Amino acid sequence: MEKQRIQIDFLSSQFVKDDGTFDKDEALKLCGKIAGVCYDKEGFHHLENEPSEKTMRRIERTLNNGHHSVYDHVSIIFNIQNIPKILAMVLNNENQYTTSEKSARYTKVERKEGSIITPAEERLYNKWIDIFKIKITEQYGSIYNASKIEKLAQENARYLVTVFMPTQMIYTTTLRQINYILSWMEEYIMSHDTHNPFENKLSFAMDQFINALIPKNILVAGLMKNEKNRYLSLFGQNLDSKQDIFSDVYSVTYKGSLAQLAQTQRHRTLDYQMEFLKEEEYFIPPIIASDKTLVEEWLGDMNMVKGVTPQGTLVRINEAGKYGDFILKCKERLCSGAQLEVMEQTRQTLLAYKKALESSCNSLASDIEKYSHGARCTFPNFTCPNDCGFKEGKTLVRKI
After folding, report:
1. Which domain holds residue 192?
2. What is the pTM of this model?
3. At 200, which CATH number?
4. CB-side exposure of 181: number of CA atoms within 13 Å?
């Protein structure tokens, strides 16, 4: 049975032709004219009417000398179907993008014909939805309605489902960036560890992605040379040897699930890298953490599907950025509505950051203290648009 294949269409671009392909020649011509703005005394309108030979020479020159920024002026909106979740994460880690992605919180995971999801994953997913619904109702039934409980149960049960599960996304980036990314994917395909099942599957997905774009006429050879030898930013090495830094800039390394990483990497002002642990470990949802029998059952079920790399697999994550951008992350994730695992990790990082600033007598210590008293609704410079009225959520001690 053939697995679901990646499908890509253009949702919007000024250069999409009636046959659904990209008008690469016209896009390059526009960028070639824009490239002349930096030295043309009369500006762009003068360049619009210049001889085409002059424009083509400028295109050739900029493509060959690495002056590619002008090709960022062409934005393209892609409608991507059946993309593996991990490949969406690869795209979302490259920062120069806008994405709207199908949520596992609001959409139940179901096997379809040709699906990569195994019968075991589907069975365990549905089994744990029922368990989570019971546990959530027992503890928070007076706070959450049935619809909310269902969503939270789905959000936690998806930890058992492969990180290669197909998803859908609307992805917007530039002509230059998509070609850069494709060149980095080609490098990954050529250099990946062929003895590693995860890397083999990801390499296969990248090859599918590239092949889905080839007939769309989007590839530009001059933009795919990768002269600077850049590579996909998501995958790091020896992250356990990195030392935590907390100052005007910060770098912190911690363990988190693949599901958490997918959530937190969406903060595009921050940088994220991941690497797998030497031994498998799995996230344990706090709602069941105090029940020894359920924890053993959860880990046993995780071990049953470990070969598909479930989203609950813990990986080592390095997060780095500027202090101000971390505070912006706190204003997003320290909330009763945020994914619990992300909220807890953000809180842990905040407290470690606060302690380090105080120990070093950093002038930011007095600022970070203002954000250490609870959820974002307690922040002095944040106004909540929709008060949850949930005490355990505001004090950041909720279990779901």
Report:
1. 7-101+165-223
2. 0.94
3. 3.30.1360.170
4. 25
